[in-house]
Each structure stands twice: as structure tokens, then as C-alpha cells.
């Protein structure tokens, strides 16, 4: 399929890109890796008349540590994150997540920011960024704002970003001592998208009790979410196999599981419980090392 015709610009600065967005309103769309937008355009499900390619803007692919925070530019590709030596040490959940996204071609072009803004309910990044309690820097023509990732996902393919704004950075805590993490998913065999995916980031105290935990879930419902009930059951307690199993059973409580040709609702809820338990176990094991 061939998309409807469109104009294309590749601004060299963020200010220029934001001006173009403001001038063209909802007719314009940001182009990052194009791995979600271009298929939609080919299917005529998205019909922008102007594509604003932000890949030429300096600084948006940067990955750096600032004190105890990790800053990821929204244009950083999945592969860049997967292969970053800094992130292997300072935020290993990101590499674990990046390396199970799609295939090599997808990881080479697709960006973390594009994935978050596209907000596919089965995408991998949302689970990891939720588990880490990330914050998103959203830039507009007049100002910029930081938003907790929990307030970002509003529904399938719907987020709190306005048509006139650009996601520019993701801020995450660097891994602390005695912390462990894991991202596990049941992939849909053709695309690699998560039928269910669970990301866990936790920290234990010297006695092995759970000091803090974040659990992000994707694929289970129409938007990714943080499993607060499971987290609350674990915080302050020793992470025994029995407690992990009982806590993981709470992950689908109050959630309306998705049902599609890949998995029914009951099966998805079952997968969520199993993968939540396994991801907590794996993270706890790493934290104990
Ligand atoms: C074959 C295939 C397999 C895939 N498998 C997986 C998988 O297993 N797991 C997974 O999670 N994903 C998967 N994906 C999706 C992939 O990760 C995409 O790269 C990602 O969803 C979108 O990133 P992008 O940079 O390509 O964004 P684009 O396609 O360029 O943009 C997506 C949307 O976000 C907007 N946008 C992009 N960047 C910004 C920004 N900085 N600020 C504001 N708006 C922005 C665009 O306007 C557009 O609406 C797959 C894709 C394909 C084609």
C-alpha cells in the first residue's frame, strides 16, 4: 500500500520543529523511526499532510547519567539502549527490555520516544518505564513540563501529549545497591509484541526484605499499568516463593483483560499472573547477588 501524499521537513532544531507543529496543527505529525507511523499511513489509518522528521535535531539521542538519574533522549533507538555500556551498569532493565523488541531492523530504527507516544497496548517500553517510575519531559513551543509516566497512558494509542508537543527526554533512577530487575514477556510470534509483558525493578535491605518495588504490565489491558496491589503486598516483606506467588495472583484484579485473536481474556490474565511471579523471582535473585 502507498500512503497518501504528504510534505516532509527535517528541522535542525527543536524550536523549529515545535514551530512547524504549532503552524500546522493536527495535520502535522512527528516522524521518529517511522516503524509505527509509516505502516499506519500505508493503511491510510493516519493521513498527516506534513511529516516533521526530528532525527536531525542534535541531542535527542543522547543517553547520560546525571547524579543518581539516567536521562534518555526520546530519539534513542532500541539498539542504542540495548548496547549502551552505561545502561548495562546503571539501568539494566532498559537493555533487558530493548533486546526483546521486534527484530534487528526494528531495533535499529525504532525509538523509545516513538514507542511511548504511539502507546500500543502491547508495546514493551511502557512496562519498563512504569516499573522504574520514569518521568517524561514534554516540550511545547512556549514551555516544557515533566510528567510522571503513570499519568501518560490514557488508552489504546492515546496519551497525555498534545498534538503541539514533542517528547524529548525520559528520566529514570539509576540502579541502587541491592537492586534487581527483570523484563519477561510472552511474545506474539509474528511481530514480537507482548501478549503479556511484565517488568520488575526492586530493592532489598540487608536482611533481604523488599524495600521498594515497581511493577509495570503491558499487553494485559487496553493500556499499560503499574501493579500497585502486587507491589503493596511485597513491600516490607521477605520475598519468599510463597509470598511472591500469592502477590502475583493479584496482578489481574480489577483489570479488564484484552481479548483478541492472539489470546483470550482468561489466558491473558493467567499469563500475567505467571509472568509477574517469574519476573519478581528473577529480579529478587539478581538483587540478592
Ligand atoms: C515488524 C515490527 C515488529 C515490532 N515489534 C515490536 C515489539 O516486539 N515490541 C514493541 O514494543 N514494539 C514493536 N514494534 C514497534 C517499534 O518498537 C516502533 O519502533 C515503535 O513503536 C515506534 O517508534 P518509532 O520511533 O518507529 O516511531 P514512529 O513510527 O516514527 O512514530 C510513532 C508515533 O509517535 C509519534 N512520535 C514519535 N516520536 C515522537 C516524539 N519524540 N514526540 C512526540 N511524538 C512522537 C509519531 O508522530 C507517531 O504518531 C514493532 C514494529 C514493527 C514494524
Can you put this structure into words, describing what you see?
With 289 residues, this protein is α+β, with helices and mostly antiparallel strands. It folds into 3 domains: 7-53, 2-Layer Sandwich (Uridine Diphospho-n-acetylenolpyruvylglucosamine Reductase, domain 2), CATH 3.30.43; 63-173, Uridine Diphospho-n-acetylenolpyruvylglucosamine Reductase, domain 3 (2-Layer Sandwich), CATH 3.30.465.10; 179-288, CO dehydrogenase flavoprotein, C-terminal domain (Enolase-like, domain 1, 2-Layer Sandwich), CATH 3.30.390.50. It is built from 11 helices and 14 strands. The chain has helices at 14-24, 37-42, 78-82, 85-90, 92-98, 104-109, 112-118, 125-131, 228-234, 241-248, 265-288; strands spanning 7-9, 28-31, 50-53, 63-66, 69-73, 135-139, 144-148, 153-155, 158-159, 166-173, 179-187, 194-204, 210-218, 225-226. The strands form 4 sheets. It has a 5-stranded antiparallel β-sheet with strand order 4-5-10-6-7. A 4-stranded antiparallel β-sheet has the order 11-12-13-14, sandwiched between helices. Strands 1-3-2 form a 3-stranded parallel β-sheet, covered by helices on one side. A hairpin with a 2-residue loop joins strand 4 (63-66) and strand 5 (69-73). The longest helix is centred in the C-terminal third of the chain and has 24 residues, at 265-288. It starts with 6 loop residues before the first strand and ends with a helix. Flavin-adenine dinucleotide binds at residues 29-37, 74, 101-102, 106, 110-111, 113-115, 117-118, 123-125, 161, 166-167, 191-193.
Amino acid at each position: 500500500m502507498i500512503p497518501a501524499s504528504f510534505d516532509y521537513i527535517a528541522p535542525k532544531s527543536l524550536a523549529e520543529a515545535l514551530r512547524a507543529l504549532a503552524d500546522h496543527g493536527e495535520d502535522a505529525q512527528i516522524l521518529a523511526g517511522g516503524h509505527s507511523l509509516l505502516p499506519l499511513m500505508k493503511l491510510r489509518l493516519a493521513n498527516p499532510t506534513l511529516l516533521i522528521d526530528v532525527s536531525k535535531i542534535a541531542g535527542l539521542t543522547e543517553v547520560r547519567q546525571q547524579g543518581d538519574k539516567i536521562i534518555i533522549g526520546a530519539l534513542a533507538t532500541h539498539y542504542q539502549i540495548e548496547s549502551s555500556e552505561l545502561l548495562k551498569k546503571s539501568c539494566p532493565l532498559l537493555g533487558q527490555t530493548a533486546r526483546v523488541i521486534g527484530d534487528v531492523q526494528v531495533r535499529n530504527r525504532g525509538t523509545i520516544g516513538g514507542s511511548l507516544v504511539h502507546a500500543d497496548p502491547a508495546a514493551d517500553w511502557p512496562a519498563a518505564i512504569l516499573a522504574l517510575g520514569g518521568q517524561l519531559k514534554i516540550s511545547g513551543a512556549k514551555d516544557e513540563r515533566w510528567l510522571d509516566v503513570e499519568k501518560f497512558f490514557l488508552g489504546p494509542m492515546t496519551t497525555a501529549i498534545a498534538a503541539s508537543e514533542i517528547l524529548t527526554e525520559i528520566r529514570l533512577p539509576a540502579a541502587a545497591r541491592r537492586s534487581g530487575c527483570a523484563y519477561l514477556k510472552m511474545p506474539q510470534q509474528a511481530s514480537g509484541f507482548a501478549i503479556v509483558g511484565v517488568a520488575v525493578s526492586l530493592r532489598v535491605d540487608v536482611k533481604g526484605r523488599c524495600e521498594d518495588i515497581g511493577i509495570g504490565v503491558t499487553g494485559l489491558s487496553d493500556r499499560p499499568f503499574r501493579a500497585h496491589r502486587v507491589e503493596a503486598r511485597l513491600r516490607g516483606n521477605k520475598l519468599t516463593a510463597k509470598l511472591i506467588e500469592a502477590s502475583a495472583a493479584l496482578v489481574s484484579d480489577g483489570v479488564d483483560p484484552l481479548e483478541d485473536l492472539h489470546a483470550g481474556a482468561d489466558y491473558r490474565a493467567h499469563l500475567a499472573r505467571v509472568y509477574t511471579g517469574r519476573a519478581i523471582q528473577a529480579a529478587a535473585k539478581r538483587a540478592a547477588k
